[in-house]
Amino acid sequence: MDPNDFAANVRRSATRKGQAGCLSYVAFCFAFTVAQAVEPIIAPYDIDPPVQVDGDLSDWENVPNAVTLNSAAHATWQREDWTGPADLSATVRVAWRTDGLLVAAEVTDDIVQQPYAGADIWKGDYLNVLLDTQPASATEDGVIQLGISPGNFDKLPAEVYSYRPQGQPAAGAKVAAKRTARGYNVEAFVPFTALGMAGVKQDQFATFEIGVSDSDGTPAAQQTMLTMGTEKWDTSRARMLPLVFGDGNGQAAPPTTTLPLVAAFELARGERRAVAFNAGKPGSNHEPYLFFRAVTKAASATGYCSLALQVLVNSEPIDTDRLSNRGPTATMRDGRTLTVAEGNGRLLLARSPDFTTTDHHPDYALADGVKSAEYELYLGGLLRDGANTITLVNTGAFDEDYRVAVGDVEFRTRPDTPGTRAFKSAPTGELPVLAPRASFSRNYTSLKQQGATITFQINGRPYRVESKFSTPDGRWVTAGNAHFRHRRKVVRHNEWLIVRDTFTNLTDENLPVMQQHTVPSGDAATGVWLAGAKMPTKSGRHFEGGENPSAFFTTDNGGVGLLALNDELRVHSTLIADRGAITLHDPFFYLGPRATYTSEFAIVPVGEPDYFAFVNAARRLLDVNFPITVGFAFVFPPVHAWSDATLTNWVANKSATYLVQSNDEVKNKNGHYARGTDWINGSKTNHINFLSRLRRLYPDKSVKAGIYFDCFLDTTEENKQRFAADRALNAAGQHIIYGSHAYLSMYIPTLQPGGWGEEMARTVDVILDGLKFDGVYWDEFTQSASFWVYSHRDGCSADIDPATHRIQRLKGATPLLSREYRAAMVQRIRDKGALLVVNGAPCTRTLGRLKIMSFTETGSISHCRKVQLYCPLALGDHLTETSEKDAFRVMRRILEYGCLYSWYGMDFAVPYKTLTEHMFPFTPIEIHSGYVIGQERIITSRSGLFGWNDQSDFTAYVYDRDGRATDRYPVKKIERDGKTYAEVRLPEGCAAAIVRAASASKTVKTKSKSERSP
Q1: Structure pTM?
Q2: pLDDT single digits (tens) 441-484
Q3: Which residues pair with 468 in a beta bridge?
Q4: Which terminus of the chain faces fewer neighbouring Cβ atoms within 10 Å, N or C?
Q5: Which has the closest alpha carbon to 958: 971, 946, 948, 943?
């Protein structure tokens, strides 16, 4: 039987299920239930030492659960052609490891013949292996089908051919076969990655089948087949047998049981649907779960909708930390991270016409095999004996009128240990030592430069950086030419190499000079990051605009990063990954007539395969480990109605020392929140009253106040004539507005006298000199509604045809056009002795050198990567925080990116102090995933031995899963090798602050490093 018949049947089955609705659904579930009634196969874990794939099956003898196929009952395909065990019989085995699947068969066959290779091996003697890791899915995504051929034991080698999913030789598979007196032995190992899988877990349920196929005739053709199952063979997916991935003893917990509740329904905005069911008594060691699929209806895959669906169990919102089949965040194929669990039972949904289209989108599909429309929630402790109700509500997020489609609602039970699904206990045993790097010796060798190529080694592995530059005749070159002169200087440092490329335009015209710097990885790359976003497929493209202008990849023993340094290259940097190779690309640069320009980038080699090793080296290079001095929090107009006690309690529990009034205190004549000139001329009564109140409540100025400021946006219609020269125009010559808000217009601030920049300087003067506030919060510090404008030219940016390399149109980058103005304004604010906090990391090195306290917004939690190479601070998530528990969850999430937390929302009370109590001041030394080490303190959600590589004393504070201070997990002081460590053992979901004794909090100064060229 042609294996492709099976794949086609799966597609047809999935299509029928989607079209036929409830009837087909019930039929499918019935078949699934029948399959589970069969005693499941237990695939044992292959314990160390692992079996060797060499055709010798002696090392399989201790692997349990072999299955013998030697009776007519197993001859399920053309039984009439099977003449007995001497004709065909087999002992088959299957096992697993964390990285792949193992299959072996000892086959008795009186006539062995396999004249075919590739997709035709099914016509000869071979093993037909079927595995479905998603047996309840409506699609074929979880179906794997392998053909394992023994070859002909001469010139035709053994092989593994993947009919599903790739339809090609299985990459990375190992296979071996040996001829025996009675037939042959064959064994194979197939990596899960070759099958498009992230892997499997112990006790995971799947379905499975192995067929041993025989070909005795001439010409070779499939004659008969023995299978593990005894039902007549057909191409039905439900024909497969239940399988559980077990332990090394070949034992496993029973598989999941499923009770279908509702096949499909839709919810209009604000509508809810209650589903009643009787949970019954779960089996021994079983725990309850709710599964369903859901999307917001759209004509095509168009992204995601936050806060779209709410889930209630017996009328109570379910804590979305209970998501069991996916994390609270998800990463798209383009590297961006989404917040899936919104708190208060609310979930993010894909915008899609069905439950699968998004999973095939080049950008919106999710990494690691996560299905965009599938949700499973743990119900342990929430259910009653007998009748229960699940309610799904279309929450109508953001007043959008959308319909929610829901399908395949199921109640499931499966083996689990109560309480351990969501949270792990504190670790016991040896802990890792987590302290900042103590020395900075050179971590690369054999540095050589030849033309535009630089080579070096890390831990004995060779690397090279290849550069090339465009010419206006459509070519790429690696050296000077008739169009420009090129000179390169490479400057050595212990942790990095600085590469300076100087170009001189030899022509009398504007000269486009694109550049690409590439580090090939071959097949060695184990991980790839662009602008801090990990690329699931090791391929991708990012235009970052300069906030994190880096590309990095790891190998098994090190890594290499590229980092743009000078302003123009940072702002233009386009980061590319191609199957592990990384490229730093500037596709926008042009050089004026006869002008000279020096581009500068860094090569950062690291001696360990760790993205954060690169981050911390880059932070030292950029000299961005400067103090974060205050605890930031927004205040909004409702605060004016609060009592003094409410306000002071709110401030104390947030541990906030810098309160900023946002942009909704002043309105213009049209009723819009005022910006620009309208704000200057508007009533400041609310500002004045708020400051007066704070001065009364905090006469020592221990809590300071600031006001919102934006230098790009204006709501004053008359300014379109008054500052016509400063209007930001798009390529069509239209004034750029902020999203759909036509009343918010964008301008470019410069140092031109009488221009828009001077008008915005008046705003700062009003805040600090007129109103006497303590500081400024500068929103959209680097750019606003548009990164590129066509009304202004920055002297280096252009649209360049990637094929002809010719300039199409000159333009300006907002961060470059406003660079000098913003630098002058920062100094103006500081000269007044005022506080300054900005939104967004500076895109340019010029602004970065000013060491400005800044944060990033976390409506998308992956935005945290944008500040990893500057001030590692993130604003709370205004989309998901509805309680202090939500806020603490966000604190832990941003800590995974090596960031600290600033408060955003005030829509909820904060009844107790939490982790921010001991977060500031903080002067970074190193940042890592899950913990950050500063001069004054260490903040962590990880367990470990934490210290500063000295004898510093400390006080530790631990916070439980709700963010409350607790003494349940005491931190011990450990002395080891003359150094002091904090022994932190945290259960999952907790966090700790280790505050260094004041006398030990000294700034570590990095020794200057000599420069020399290779």
Answers
A1: 0.70
A2: 999 999 999 999 999 999 999 999 999 999 999 999 999 999 99
A3: 516
A4: C
A5: 971
Residue carrying structure tokens 């860094």: 602
SS3 call for 894: helix
Report whether 126 contacts 115 (CB < 8 A): no
Stretch among 23-37, 642-656, 687-701, 894-908 having the lowest mean pLDDT: 23-37
Amino acid at 332: M
What is the bridge-based pairing of β-strands 241-245 and 41-43?
parallel
Q: Which long-range contacts (CB under 8 A, 24 or more apart) does 800-808 make?
A: 800/470, 800/512, 800/514, 800/587, 800/588, 800/590, 802/587, 803/474, 804/474, 805/470, 805/471, 805/472, 805/473, 805/474, 805/475, 805/512, 805/514, 806/472, 806/512, 807/472, 807/510, 807/512, 807/590
DSSP 841: -
456/442 Cα distance (integer angstroms) = 12
Distance, in Å, from the CA atom of 527 to the CA atom of 538, rounded to the nearest integer, reads 7
List, for residues 914-930, the tens digit of each pLDDT value. 999 999 999 999 999 99
- Residue 205 to residue 42: CA distance in whole angstroms: 10
For residue 835, pLDDT beyond 50: yes
Asked whether 645 and 671 are in contact (CB, 8 A), the reply is no
**Six token digits for residue 513:** 């000079």
Sign of CA dihedral 758, 666, 646, 855: negative
Per residue in 580-634, pLDDT tens?
Answer: 999 999 999 999 999 999 999 999 999 999 999 999 999 999 999 999 999 999 9
User: Hunting for tokens 């990990």 — which residue is that?
Assistant: 534
> Phi and psi of 336, rounded to 5°?
-75, 150
For residue 215, give both structure tokens: 């070909």
State mean pLDDT over 80-92. 93
Cα gap 973→993, rounded to integer Å: 14
Nearest-5° Cα angle at 813, 812 to 816? 105
**Which amino acid, residue 999?**
S
Whether omega for the bond prior to residue 219 falls within 30 degrees of 0, making it cis, is yes
C-alpha dihedral, 692 to 698 to 703 to 706, nearest 10°: 10
d(CA 743, CA 171): 56
Q: DSSP string of 921-965?
A: SB-EEEEETTEEEESSEEEESS-EEE--SS---EEEEEE-TTS-E
Tell me the residue type at 982: A
Q: What is the DSSP letter of 993?
A: E
State the helix-helix crossing angle for 3-20 and 22-37, rounded to 10 degrees: 130
Could you please report the per-residue DSSP string of 344-380?
TTEEEEEEESSSSGGGG-TTTSBSTT--TTEEEEE-T
Which residues 6+ apart lie within 8 Å of 1008 measured at CB?
none
CA 487, CA 476: separation in Å to the nearest integer?
A: 16
> Cα(258)–Cα(242) distance, rounded to whole angstroms?
14
- Helix 685-697 vs helix 644-654: angle between axes, to the nearest 10 degrees? 70
Distance CA 840, CA 818 (A): 15
pLDDT, one tens digit per residue, over 299-350 is 999 999 988 999 999 999 987 778 888 877 888 888 888 888 877 788 999 9
- Report the C-alpha gap between 858 and 901 in whole angstroms: 10
For residues 899 and 867, what is the distance between their CA atoms, to the nearest angstrom?
Answer: 8
Contact between 167 and 155 under an 8 Å Cβ cutoff? The reply is no
- Give the full edge-to-edge strand order of the sheet including 853-855: 632-635, 658-661, 704-709, 775-778, 835-839, 853-855
